[in-house]
From TrEMBL:
It is an enzyme of class 2 (transferase). This is UDP-3-O-acylglucosamine N-acyltransferase. Pathway: Bacterial outer membrane biogenesis; LPS lipid A biosynthesis. Coiled coil: none annotated. CDD domains: LbH_LpxD. Catalyzes the N-acylation of UDP-3-O-acylglucosamine using 3-hydroxyacyl-ACP as the acyl donor. Is involved in the biosynthesis of lipid A, a phosphorylated glycolipid that anchors the lipopolysaccharide to the outer membrane of the cell.
Length: 356
């Protein structure tokens, strides 16, 4: 089977257009019309490809690359092959992403898997649901009573939209997602398999666990993106809120009453227990676990695979299990490494004396 691409082949950008787009400076100004048709890593790039370098780790690949042009900081210019068009920039990866986005704009927002632009046969839409103009609904979709869908939104195949759910304009709801008890803003992207608005996990323990009612909502503000197979529980007696432009990775669990501020980042497989708060710009690494009612302060960061049992102050970086401030965590890790290197062992129980 031949190589098959899943995105339209770009028409390309000239070096002059890339310079204009990124603000990079071309070391060789004699080839402004050289056409770049694609992007590729250093070791795979060809004469019509753009690549980048921002780490010494890839310096050997730079010396042998066949790329047409490369974005790089000034310190790498001396290692570049003579035929390579060098584009000098202090932020090569950011510039590379700008070019990649311009070449493949369709990759930034999921499209209808059925390649439709209307309501497909096989969709089930309740008569009381309200859909604005230019809404795309793929086969197998179910839209419940009194749901509202804004203009330009795409509902992919087999998604389920529950009663009274409101979804704003220019959103994408991925294939197989289910959304209930939720109000969703504009330009929100929800990837396939997400579960949003189901009841949270709340029980009073005892001989017979007593289920706690969950009667809140999920509020998802504008420009949020939620990764595949992530679950977001509705609130108990207050709302679960995902703040403006926050980004949640795949396979995360957001418990009931959780509040994310604006521009938060939650990386894959993280679990946020009930009533957790992330203030604006907070970030969680992969597989972080947060205990109930913990607050992660504004701009704070938690390292991957950490377990957070206490509030993290604004702007601090914590890590470990249980998580602690970075300097303390690093000192403890270093002390443990020294102990292991020295062959030290934790003291065991004292041996009984003779005759005891």
């Amino acid at each position: 089977m031949g190589k098959r691409g899943f995105f339209e082949r770009p028409s390309g950008l000239t070096i002059a257009q890339i310079v204009s787009l990124t603000g990079a400076e071309a070391r060789d100004a004699t080839r402004p019309e050289h056409l770049i048709k694609d992007v590729a890593p250093l070791e795979l790039a060809g004469p019509a490809d753009l690549t980048f370098i921002d780490s010494n780790k890839y310096a050997d690949d730079l010396a042998t690359t066949r790329a047409g042009a490369c974005l790089m900081p000034e310190r790498f210019e001396g290692r570049a092959p003579d035929n390579l068009i060098v584009l000098r920039t202090s932020e090569p990866y950011r510039a590379f992403v700008a070019v990649h986005s311009a070449l493949y704009p369709q990759s930034l927002r999921p499209a209808s898997l059925f390649e439709g632009n209307d309501i497909a046969p096989g969709a089930t839409i309740h008569p009381t649901a309200r859909l604005e103009s230019e809404v795309t609904v793929d086969p197998g979709v179910v839209i419940g009573p009194r749901a509202q869908i804004g203009a330009g939104t795409i509902i992919a195949a087999n998604a389920v939209i529950g009663p009274n759910v409101s979804i704003g304009r220019d959103c994408v709801i991925g294939a197989g997602a289910s959304i209930m008890h939720a109000l969703i803003g504009d330009r929100v992207v929800i990837h396939p398999g997400c579960r949003i608005g189901q009841d949270g996990f709340g029980y009073i323990t005892g001989a017979k666990p007593l289920k706690v009612p969950q009667t809140g909502r999920v509020i998802i503000q504008n420009d949020v993106e939620i990764g595949a197979a992530t679950t977001i529980d509705r609130g108990g007696i207050r709302d679960t809120v995902i703040g403006e432009a926050s980004k949640i990775d795949n396979q995360c669990q957001i418990g009931h009453n959780v509040v994310l501020g604006r521009y938060c980042i939650v990386v894959a497989q993280s679990g946020l227990s009930g009533s957790v708060t992330l203030e604006d710009y907070a970030a969680l690494g992969g597989s972080v676990g947060l205990a109930p009612h913990v607050t992660i302060g504004r701009g704070a960061q938690v390292a991957a695979r950490s377990g957070v049992m206490n509030d993290v102050p604004a702007g601090e970086i914590w890590g470990g299990y249980p998580a602690k401030p970075r300097k303390q965590w690093m000192r403890q890790e270093a002390a443990l490494a020294r102990l292991i290197a020295a062959g030290g062992k934790a003291a065991g129980p004292a041996k009984p004396s003779e005759g005891s």
